[in-house]
Amino acid sequence: MSYILKSILLLLIMSIVLPCWSTKLPDEFARSGIAVGVVVEDLQKSVDFYTNVIGMVQVREFSVDVEKARKMGLSNGQSFDIKVLKLINSEDASEWKLMSFSKKSEATKQGYIPEKNGFRYVTIFVKSMKPVLERIRKYGVKTMGETPLMLDANRQFVSVRDPDGNFVELIGPK
Question: Which of 174, 127, 136 is nearest to 155 (CA)?
Answer without folding.
Answer: 174
